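Ticket #343: bound-state structure for S-adenosylmethionine.
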Amino acid sequence: MVKARGRAARVKKSDGQKTKNKLKELGLIDEVRMIESDGKYVYIPVLEGKGLGKFEIVEIELEGREKRKGFRELLAERFGEENAKGVLSSYDVVGDIAIVQIPKELEAHEEEVGKLLLKGDNKVKVVLKKAGGREGEFRVTRLKHLAGEGRTETEYVENGVRMKLDVSKVYFSPRLSHERKRIMGEVRDGENVLVLFAGVGPFALEIGKAHPSAKVVGVELNPEAVAYFKENIKLNKLENVSVELGDAKEAVKEKFVSWANRIVMPLPMGAEEFLDTAFLAAKPGCVVHFYRMVERVGGQKRANEKIGQAAKRAGREVEFIFEKEVRPYSASTVQIVLDFRVN
Ligand SMILES: C[S@@+](CC[C@H](N)C(=O)[O-])C[C@H]1O[C@@H](n2cnc3c(N)ncnc32)[C@H](O)[C@@H]1O
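RESOLUTION: The complex was predicted; output attached.
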């Protein structure tokens, strides 16, 4: 490593940590050089700036810190900016597993991309590639191993909740974390919350943790997801959250008629087929959070119409209270959320 001459704050060894904290607060630490000690004094490399007057400043040679290159930099260096953008715009990290989409131009080098990701991102231990779209009723993605450890199970923390899951066996997307946070903020004390299509439990667990007085039930068809959901309830020590294995329509008919104050419907590819079910479960005043993929142009209006028609069939009234584009999906499609109250 190379020594670099520059300014440093000199303090007695016993005051080292305190001074470092103060300099950090002031944004005056020079991260490019290392802190060193000669046994009696500590030398903290500093930048020019307001507040330095309070410290004893000396000129000294300190070791330079080698800057670690990130994934973005490594990719751009090896394959050029344009190709790097193609990979970077479409990769997710779930716990310590990265899931990438490899553009056609880089397919011949996909394992190298995987290795660069391991090198450039400290927290990533496994790199997988999307080898197809989401498939079947369980909406699971086919994955191919590119680099790192040979496993597909991980633990992920979102909005203060720990979740174990296997990315090759269940649906999971970290891209809805901001929506889960929003819904957590909407729930009121003592509510009965029904999460249809609950997966390994992200909506249900996060709501349950934030609102101990709410009763939260998830319904999920994929037995592997339900097994993780149950493990996650234990992992987070939640007594107000439970999960039902089975089809949402059947579960509601059997156990949740006129039960819910709030219903979450995160099934963007077909939630409208379950609108009759939602109306059956809804108490008067119930709020429904309805997720749907729609055409960018005119798609939302059609979704509103479907909800209106289902309300009519159920003899209920709906009031639309919130709408938002959650995320882009393709050139012509976006995912939206519509919140409506059922009276
Ligand atoms: C888009 S994923 C959402 C999972 C979860 N809410 C999340 O955000 O991670 C949809 C989930 O619905 C489940 N599912 C599909 N059809 C179902 C049905 N008829 N009844 C209950 N769950 C169903 C799938 O297995 C899948 O886990």
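RESOLUTION NOTES: The radius of gyration is 26 Å.
TICKET STATUS: resolved
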